[in-house]
Each structure stands twice: as structure tokens, then as C-alpha cells.
Amino acid sequence: IFEAKANYNIAYNLNRLFVYKASCHYVKLAYEQYLKLHDWYRTATCYNLLAVNYKSLQRYREALLYIEKGKNLLSNEQEIPLLTMLIHNEAIIYLKEIRYELALQTIDLCITLREQHNISTILAYEVKLEILLKSQCYDTFLNLLHEQLTQPLNEKQRSKLLYLQALHAYETNNLELFEQLALSIYPIFKRY
Question: Which helix or strand (DSSP H or E) is residue 16 part of?
């Protein structure tokens, strides 16, 4: 099990350094070892990291394949956080593939599961807002954005939502609001 953990940690750190192909190599070694150990949870975790790597490499079909494999391995309540991460990544891939309706359905499932199990939904709502913005559902986008801005948020979370609002202002040609929002969030983004 030590070798599997080491390979996974190497893969994770390579992913964080944006070295996706090498990360894929090490995470495949890890999942093969976890499969032999019948450790389904850690195997699904490896599949999630593979999906993230393939998504970053814009190899969406492979990413979706590993997401499906990971979802098929998870079956109990303690695995819901990992399941929602897989579903979250699946929605992002559909967004990248410009399959907005499917992306919206998928992120809504993620949000529902997270709410049912008291797991933070802020990242899922950020993805939902991005889907609504890209699909030009501006009224729904603005309603959800204002709802999310009333939630307790840290500075980084609030700035991400304001960034999406700035993108909306730009897309709807409200350049004065765009400039105002961009200037207000720039110092925050510099810190992170």
C-alpha cells in the first residue's frame, strides 16, 4: 500500500504543477496497485485524478470514461463527497464540450447531493453560474448570482462570483460596470 500511496502523491503533485501527462503515468500505477488490493475508494480517487488530468489535456472522452468508472465503484454514504467531486468534474467537461443542457443537469445533481449531505456547494454553484453565463441564460444567471452573493463567503469566494459578474457585464456590453468590478477584484486576485 505504501507504493500505491507514493505513486498517487507523486501524481497529485505533478497535477498541481500542471505536468498532466506525467501525472497520468503515476496515477495509473497507483490505481493498478489499489485495484489489486481491492481498495475501491482509493481506486475511484485515482480515477478522479485521471479525469482531472485528461480534462486539462482536453481529452474529454477519456476523462468521462474514468469518471464513469469511478462513479461505478462508489456505493455507500461515506463515499458521497468523492461521488460529488466526480459529478462536478463531469459537469465541467460537458461545459467545455458546449453541452450546456447536460452540464446544467449534471451540476444540479451535484448540488442536490451536496445539499442532502451537508457538503459545501459554493464550487458547484460557481460552475452552475459559469454554465448559465456561457449558455446566455442571463436572467437566471443574475438571480442565482445575487442569491449566492448573500451567502456567507470568504474573500476569495466572493471575488470569484464578482469575476463572473464582470464577465456578464462585459458580455452584455456594460463596460462601465465591467471596469468597476475588474478594478475591485484585481487586488484580491493578486493576493491569491
Answer: helix 2-16
**Residue that has been written with the C-alpha cell 469518471 in this structure:** 67
The three-state secondary structure class of 97 is: coil
At which residue does the C-alpha cell 460552475 appear? 127
For residues 141 and 125, give the distance between their C-alpha atoms in angstroms, rounded to a whole number: 11
> Distance (Å, rounded) from C-alpha 47 to C-alpha 28?
8
**Buried b or exposed e, range 163-177, using 16+ CB within 10 angstroms:** bbbbbbbeeeeeeee
Handedness of CA 65, 66, 67, 68 (dihedral sign): positive
> How is residue 171 written as a grid cell?
458580455
* pLDDT of the chain, 192 residues: tens digit per residue: 899 999 999 999 999 999 999 999 999 999 999 999 999 999 999 999 999 999 999 999 999 999 999 999 998 888 999 999 999 999 999 999 999 999 999 999 999 999 999 999 999 999 999 999 999 999 999 999 999 999 999 999 999 999 999 999 999 999 999 999 999 998 888 887
Best CA proximity match to 42, nearest among 9, 90, 77, 87: 9
